[in-house]
Request: fold
Amino acid sequence: MTIVAADAAHIAALIDDLYAAFLAGDRHRFDGHLHADVTTWETHLPGPLRTRAELDAYRDQRDAAGRRPQLAVLSAQDKRIDVWGDVGLARYLLIARACAEDPPSSARVTDVLRRVNGRWQIVHHHAESVDDAVAAR
Reply:
Protein backbone atom coordinates (compact mmCIF):
# COMPACT_ATOMS: atom_id res chain seq x y z
CA MET A 1 0.00 0.00 0.00
CA THR A 2 1.37 3.42 -0.92
CA ILE A 3 1.65 6.22 1.61
CA VAL A 4 -1.17 8.11 -0.14
CA ALA A 5 -3.43 5.03 -0.06
CA ALA A 6 -2.60 4.47 3.61
CA ASP A 7 -3.44 8.11 4.40
CA ALA A 8 -6.73 7.83 2.48
CA ALA A 9 -7.61 4.67 4.42
CA HIS A 10 -6.78 6.45 7.68
CA ILE A 11 -9.03 9.38 6.73
CA ALA A 12 -11.85 6.97 5.79
CA ALA A 13 -11.53 5.30 9.21
CA LEU A 14 -11.52 8.72 10.91
CA ILE A 15 -14.79 9.65 9.18
CA ASP A 16 -16.37 6.35 10.22
CA ASP A 17 -15.23 6.89 13.82
CA LEU A 18 -16.54 10.47 13.78
CA TYR A 19 -20.07 9.24 13.09
CA ALA A 20 -19.75 6.25 15.44
CA ALA A 21 -18.81 8.73 18.18
CA PHE A 22 -21.85 10.86 17.34
CA LEU A 23 -24.16 7.85 17.58
CA ALA A 24 -22.56 6.89 20.91
CA GLY A 25 -23.03 10.43 22.25
CA ASP A 26 -19.26 10.67 22.77
CA ARG A 27 -18.67 14.37 22.13
CA HIS A 28 -15.07 14.23 23.35
CA ARG A 29 -14.18 11.50 20.82
CA PHE A 30 -16.13 13.29 18.07
CA ASP A 31 -14.36 16.58 18.79
CA GLY A 32 -10.96 14.86 18.74
CA HIS A 33 -11.35 14.67 14.95
CA LEU A 34 -11.96 18.43 14.62
CA HIS A 35 -9.33 21.15 14.43
CA ALA A 36 -9.91 24.10 16.80
CA ASP A 37 -10.37 26.37 13.76
CA VAL A 38 -12.80 24.05 11.95
CA THR A 39 -15.42 25.80 9.84
CA THR A 40 -18.77 24.03 9.81
CA TRP A 41 -21.33 24.74 7.10
CA GLU A 42 -24.47 22.60 7.11
CA THR A 43 -27.94 23.08 5.67
CA HIS A 44 -29.62 23.08 9.10
CA LEU A 45 -27.11 25.31 10.93
CA PRO A 46 -27.77 29.01 11.62
CA GLY A 47 -25.10 30.21 9.19
CA PRO A 48 -21.48 29.14 8.96
CA LEU A 49 -19.77 28.35 12.24
CA ARG A 50 -16.17 29.53 11.90
CA THR A 51 -14.45 27.82 14.86
CA ARG A 52 -15.01 24.86 17.13
CA ALA A 53 -15.86 27.33 19.89
CA GLU A 54 -18.79 28.58 17.77
CA LEU A 55 -19.81 24.98 17.06
CA ASP A 56 -19.63 24.21 20.80
CA ALA A 57 -21.83 27.21 21.63
CA TYR A 58 -24.41 26.10 19.06
CA ARG A 59 -24.40 22.50 20.36
CA ASP A 60 -24.59 23.60 24.01
CA GLN A 61 -27.65 25.74 23.26
CA ARG A 62 -29.27 23.00 21.16
CA ASP A 63 -28.61 20.28 23.75
CA ALA A 64 -29.86 22.46 26.65
CA ALA A 65 -33.13 22.86 24.75
CA GLY A 66 -33.38 19.06 24.36
CA ARG A 67 -32.96 19.15 20.59
CA ARG A 68 -29.90 16.90 20.11
CA PRO A 69 -30.64 14.61 17.15
CA GLN A 70 -31.29 11.01 18.15
CA LEU A 71 -30.33 8.72 15.30
CA ALA A 72 -30.19 4.97 14.87
CA VAL A 73 -28.07 5.15 11.70
CA LEU A 74 -25.43 7.64 10.57
CA SER A 75 -23.25 6.24 7.83
CA ALA A 76 -20.78 7.74 5.36
CA GLN A 77 -21.12 5.98 2.02
CA ASP A 78 -19.49 6.20 -1.40
CA LYS A 79 -16.38 7.88 0.02
CA ARG A 80 -13.92 9.46 -2.37
CA ILE A 81 -10.72 10.59 -0.69
CA ASP A 82 -7.70 12.34 -2.14
CA VAL A 83 -4.49 13.18 -0.31
CA TRP A 84 -1.81 15.71 -1.22
CA GLY A 85 0.95 15.69 1.37
CA ASP A 86 -0.54 16.97 4.61
CA VAL A 87 -3.92 17.88 3.06
CA GLY A 88 -6.81 15.50 2.49
CA LEU A 89 -10.18 15.93 0.82
CA ALA A 90 -13.07 13.58 1.52
CA ARG A 91 -16.39 13.59 -0.31
CA TYR A 92 -19.21 11.23 0.58
CA LEU A 93 -22.92 10.72 1.01
CA LEU A 94 -24.08 10.74 4.63
CA ILE A 95 -27.12 8.58 5.32
CA ALA A 96 -29.14 9.16 8.50
CA ARG A 97 -32.16 7.39 10.00
CA ALA A 98 -33.91 8.21 13.25
CA CYS A 99 -34.99 4.57 13.51
CA ALA A 100 -34.70 1.51 11.30
CA GLU A 101 -38.28 1.87 10.04
CA ASP A 102 -37.90 5.51 8.95
CA PRO A 103 -36.92 6.45 5.42
CA PRO A 104 -33.32 7.64 5.20
CA SER A 105 -32.32 11.25 4.82
CA SER A 106 -29.08 12.07 3.09
CA ALA A 107 -26.54 14.85 2.72
CA ARG A 108 -23.63 15.46 0.39
CA VAL A 109 -20.56 16.09 2.53
CA THR A 110 -17.14 17.53 1.84
CA ASP A 111 -14.47 17.45 4.55
CA VAL A 112 -11.08 19.10 4.21
CA LEU A 113 -8.44 17.65 6.53
CA ARG A 114 -4.91 18.64 7.57
CA ARG A 115 -2.28 16.51 9.17
CA VAL A 116 -1.31 18.36 12.35
CA ASN A 117 1.46 16.88 14.49
CA GLY A 118 0.97 13.54 12.76
CA ARG A 119 -2.84 13.46 13.25
CA TRP A 120 -5.49 14.08 10.62
CA GLN A 121 -8.05 16.68 11.69
CA ILE A 122 -11.05 18.14 9.91
CA VAL A 123 -10.51 21.85 9.21
CA HIS A 124 -13.61 22.39 7.06
CA HIS A 125 -16.89 20.46 7.02
CA HIS A 126 -19.62 21.26 4.50
CA ALA A 127 -22.86 19.28 4.33
CA GLU A 128 -25.84 19.97 2.10
CA SER A 129 -29.09 18.11 2.60
CA VAL A 130 -29.82 16.20 -0.59
CA ASP A 131 -33.44 15.87 0.50
CA ASP A 132 -33.77 19.69 0.72
CA ALA A 133 -31.95 20.17 -2.59
CA VAL A 134 -34.26 17.70 -4.33
CA ALA A 135 -37.37 19.20 -2.71
CA ALA A 136 -36.35 22.71 -3.88
CA ARG A 137 -36.30 21.67 -7.56
Observations:
- The chain has one domain: 3-136.
